[in-house]
Amino acid sequence: MNRNTLRRYTSRGWLGLMYALTVLALIPLGLVLWFTIAKGLPSVIHPEFFFNAELPPCEPSCPPVLQAGVSHAIAGTAIMVGLASLMAIPVGILGGIYLAEYGVAARWTSWVRLAADVLVGTPSIAIGLFIYAFLVVPFHHFSGYSGAVALAVLMLPIVVRTTEGAVSLIPNGLRESGLALGIPRWRVSLQLILPAAAPGVITGALLSVARAGGETAPLLFTAFGAHILVLNPDQPMQALPMTVFRYALLPYKSLQAQAWGAALVLIVLVLAINLVSRWVLRRQIALAGQL
Amino acid sequence: MATAVDAKPAAAAVAHRPGDGFRTVVGIVASFVPAALVLIVLTLLQQAAPAIRQFGPGFLSGTEWNPVTDTFGALPAIFGTVATAFMSLALALPVGVAVAVILAEPGHTNLRGFVGTGIELLAAIPSVVYGIWALYVLAPWTYAHIEVPVSERITFVGWFGDPAVRGLFTAALVLAVMILPTLTAISRDVIKAVPRGMKENAIALGATWWETTWRVILPSARAGIFGATILALGRALGETIAVTMVIGNAYQIPHSIFQPAYTLASVIANEFTEATGTIYPAALVELGLVLILVTLVVNMVALLLVHSISREARLTA
After folding, report:
1. What's the rounded Cα separation, in Å, for the pair A244 and A266?
2. How many helices (H) and strands (E) does chain B have?
3. Which of B69, B165, B209, B210 is a plausible cystine mate for A14, CB 3.0–4.6 Å?
């Protein structure tokens, strides 16, 4: 065989291998989705799934369990993620504006940026330990509030970095025209730049919500979990990921089925938020093209 | 003369700006981020203090973990954490770089959009969902189809023996899937940042696609891919829930990669709510401290690498 032919075939072979590896990378996604649907759907379609699952026999005495459905977990996740969003999103947006608008020269911004990136990679279990020492120990009890703060710490760096990215995409002309009209700097940032960057900012906020909604580790020692519907965040609260984690490890078939169902609800929520945020982001890119 | 003219408006502007209050406010708000990071480390340090005082550096090399006798050593957990992380990297790196190379190629935008979306969704799936899937689907399958056949055939090295349903290998496999998106996304950006001229020159010299990729593109993206790898390592070290569900929770340094083990994060997740007394919880927090300090260093190294790459790319572009 000609040497060049060999080189061409070698090249094709490697290209084929790389495509094969790409397909291989997508297989786990398909498998996770397929099994979650196949095993979760049979539980989810029963109305008892949400309110009254069959309880296993427990000994020597049962905890005061009124319901093992997942409605209390969904409510807990909604309340805690909602509270966390109220804390993390406004703070994160202002932080992101600081990085994007004042970040060119200042040295402090590069430290903030590095801290945000490091915080994104910080193990979430460590954030749980931190909030335990910071909010659970002083108040002597687990609570939904402490869970929400733990989730907020997790969300904050994501919101900061995505807001920075979206705001710095806005062309300088818009800033300069605002300033040339005599609008103060803060109004330029908040009323001119921020609305223009809104789709990107919303994308970041949604992604952080999806991330917080799926987190288990920071809630284990803060929100702790509950067996009943709790609407007061001053009490221990259940969350969907904790339901999956705790029930999946129990030896009772009925609760394992609940865990699969909860996993399905969780994955549907998280992926829905992700797809919506991608759609919003596409509008941002189209918008930025027009500016 | 010119300087006088220039100086005047500047001075006027400064006088006209009575201290940029907005800048101060957003600056303070942004400082919450580094403040949180420092506070986390200091709080863990303070909480771990009783254990640090009692065990000293011997904590890191101790192999026993016994709450009854208050004997605590971190070595098996450190071993499990490092072993699962590096095994998952070894599994994920070739796949991640291959996907990144494919994604960075021009053309076939629909196909690449599909693959890219898929990889990003992989990153979006919550850890606990990977955990339940790994526990009930992946672990039994790998036990029957990988671990048992391998351990039967490869008997001359000890660390492929004694398969168990839950163990290091299964945990590493799940971790590999979970860190793949980090690896791929950053590697793709780094590969895309390689100046087009280099690729075009190689093609003009008659190099095939593979020769261009292997000898030109990947070597110039090497440092960035290394950064992506270290960043993924940081993720793998800190991952808690999915690993806790499949690693088998045995506080030992296993003699085989198929044996159950434990990681720093899993010990904390499993035991912290039940820990009583002062030394036991403090020892668990010290595990968390070890974990966070290691991931901090790993992440900073990775970020500095990746940032220096992107700065270089901006300069050469």
Report:
1. 9
2. 17, 2
3. B210
Residues linked to residue B150 through DSSP beta bridges, in sequence order: none
Return the closest-CA partner of residue B228 out of B175, B191, B275.
B191
Nearest to A217 among B20, B132, B241 (CB): B241
Position B170 pLDDT exceeds 90: yes
Apex CA B292: angle with CA B291 and CA B296, to 5°? 120
Q: Residue A214: exposed, middle, or buried by beta-carbon count in 10 A (0-12, 13-18, 19+)?
A: buried
Nearest CA to A209 among A264, A128, A148?
A148
**Cβ-defined contact of A133 to B95 (cutoff 8 Å):** no
Q: Which two tokens stand for residue B259?
A: 């044996």
Q: Which residue matches tokens 């998280």?
A: A270
DSSP count for chain A of H helices, then E strands: 13, 0
Of B215, B206, B158, B287, the closest CA to residue A128 belongs to B287
Tokens of A102: 């004042």
The structural domain count of chain B equals 1
Positions of chain A with pLDDT lower than 50, given as ranges: 59-61, 64-66
pLDDT band, very low/low/confident/very high, at B313 (cuts 50, 70, 90):
low
Locate the chain A residue with the closest alpha carbon to B21: A186
Residue B254 is part of a domain; what is its CATH number?
1.10.3720.10
Q: Which positions ≥6 away from A70 have C-beta within 8 Å?
A: A49, A50, A240, A243, A258, A261, A262, A265
- Asked if B288 and A101 come within 8 Å (Cβ–Cβ), the reply is no
In a domain, B3, yes or no: no
- Please give the structure tokens belonging to residue A118: 């490091």
Token pair belonging to A50: 């949400």
Domain that holds residue B178: 21-316
Place of tokens 């907005």: B22
Does residue B12 lie in a domain region?
no
Q: What average pLDDT does the segment B181-185 reach?
A: 93
A-chain CB neighbours of B126 within 8 Å are: 213-216, 241, 266-267, 270
Answer yes or no: is B163 within a domain: yes
Chain B partners of A123 at a C-beta cutoff of 8 Å?
Answer: 237-240, 265, 288, 291-292, 295
The pTM (predicted TM-score) of the whole model is: 0.91
Contacting residues of B for A35, CB less than 8 Å apart: 133, 136-137
Give the pLDDT confidence of B259-291 residue by residue, as tens digits.
999 999 999 999 998 888 889 999 999 999 999
Please check whether residue B5 lies inside any domain of the structure. no
Q: Which residues from chain B sit within 8 angstroms of residue A22, using beta carbons? A: 98-99, 102, 115
Three-state secondary structure call for residue A227: coil
Give the residue from B133, B214, B243 with the most A CB atoms within 10 Å of its CB, the best one to mutate.
Answer: B133
Q: How far is residue A160's CA from residue A89's CA, in Å, rounded to a whole number?
A: 8
